[in-house]
């Protein structure tokens, strides 16, 4: 019977940045809140990402929750922390915010059903746990469904195989191993930097070069982080930039500058490190092919001068851009290119010689055979919408969310979906997700979610539903905006193009954090596009 199932005002799925943050604010406002979390602990993506070299590509304190109780009593040891430190950070978040006391861990939710009569969601997990809730908030991130390509004969391979996102908690020895690594996304780049120095031999199977940017890691001491007086201002300031950082595109076209000025500007972005060259470049980088070409030329020169072997350089940093710069996510690197200067570290261009099949001892491309005893699949995720594919979420009339999105992703505000009343999600489809620093996007979305739930309580509303018209208008705008950019020219996970058969469409909001934040604020003024019911 439904009444035997525990009831909460709010049920949150996932105890990562957004789940912890929403729990904190909603509980503060007097709501009963519960988190169901698949993992045995808090941390979200930083519980699962524990492959060698896993590290965040946003710098701290930008990559951090803006909750004073949390940041005032925390300091980092490096500008770009690794997964171990991020796990420690989440332990701290848990201790300070007491997340665990309101969380069911090891609870993998499989089903959620909207009940029109009671205006509640009923949520069921694999371990049999159930809950009913007025609001259902899915905070499951954009990269939780792994992708392994359907390689011919993969099961024949007799060596050890690991997908980067299912890395054994006990670790995997890379020392002295012969390693085959497929994939050169940010994961592949980070693993290469760890495997290169210790392996016997490393074959990196690259289909598309990663146009990596210099990280410029720096080590931080506690004393430099003792004064937190300016932090609140920093967290407000990060919302003023496209990517949710403290830097932003400059208000100039690339061709407004002379070649000399451009060279100086590009070099300054490289010297700054992080994503500056990506999202603090000339503002026409993603819209003007010439601006993009100029940026690529600079990047190509910088990367190729670090690679001694011209054959390797032609694969890793080709003269002709594989796609417009920045339309696939660049990774940050520390010594990626130098790895390939070692005689035992190879790059195999599988766009020129595709992987034909696996063998007992390795794999065969159309041109040759490669032997290794450890295979690492850094082949990514069914990103953004894929996170929802293993979850049966049924809204009004029993319609399933993943079915609705199979035809076309449709959302209102990148936060909710028509006919899925009282469902909201964070850091997912049609939000600034892939183009923003996670905690910045979450800061904006958390405010909206907490505000609407409070508003409804104050007005005795039991449900809200995004209108169909508002959803269509929002979705159409995303699809229209992307046609003005170079993004459709790349086969990227931003566009769903990394998964065979997946619909090609822009899965993210591309106008940046300030425009997104203003949009949410304007909706809050009169709840445009939202229908409330008692
Ligand atoms: P990504 O960025 O999706 O990278 C996956 C990599 O795997 C990428 O280089 C792909 O090449 C490669 N891949 C995928 N399928 C194949 C096949 N069939 N053959 C050869 N190579 C293949 O995943 P990551 O884990 O690195 O990063 C995901 C995001 O998580 C990251 O951007 C951060 O935001 C956090 P392709 O480029 O498609 O040619």
How would you explain this protein's 3D organization?
- This protein has two domains: 2-145 and 383-533, FAD/NAD(P)-binding domain (3-Layer(bba) Sandwich); 154-377, no CATH class.
- The protein contains 15 helices and 20 strands.
- The model has no long low-confidence stretch (mean pLDDT 97).
- Helix content is 30%, strand content 16%.
- Strands 1, 2, 3, 4, 5, 6, 17 and 18 form an eight-stranded mixed sheet that branches. It has a five-stranded parallel sheet with strand order 7-16-8-9-12. It has a three-stranded antiparallel sheet with strand order 13-14-15, with no helix packed on it.
- The two termini are 24 Å apart.
- The chain is of the alpha/beta class and 534 residues long.
- Helix 1 runs parallel beside helix 13 (438-458) and helix 13 packs parallel to helix 15 (512-526).
- It has helices at 17-28, 45-48, 68-71, 83-97, 186-198, 231-237, 259-272, 276-279, 289-304, 310-316, 336-339, 401-407, 438-458, 468-483, 512-526, and strands at residues 7-13, 33-36, 103-104, 109-115, 120-125, 130-138, 160-163, 178-182, 201-206, 213-214, 332-333, 345-349, 355-358, 362-365, 369-371, 374-377, 392-394, 423-425, 463-466, 530-533.
- Bound molecules: ligand NA7.
- Ligand NA7 is lined by residues 143, 149, 164, 182-188, 205, 207-208, 329, 350, 355, 378-381, 493, 498.
- Its cofactor is FAD.
- Belongs to the FAD-binding monooxygenase family.
- Keywords: FAD, Flavoprotein, Membrane, Monooxygenase, NADP, Oxidoreductase, Transmembrane, Transmembrane helix.
- This is FAD/NAD(P)-binding domain-containing protein.
- It comes from Myxozyma melibiosi.
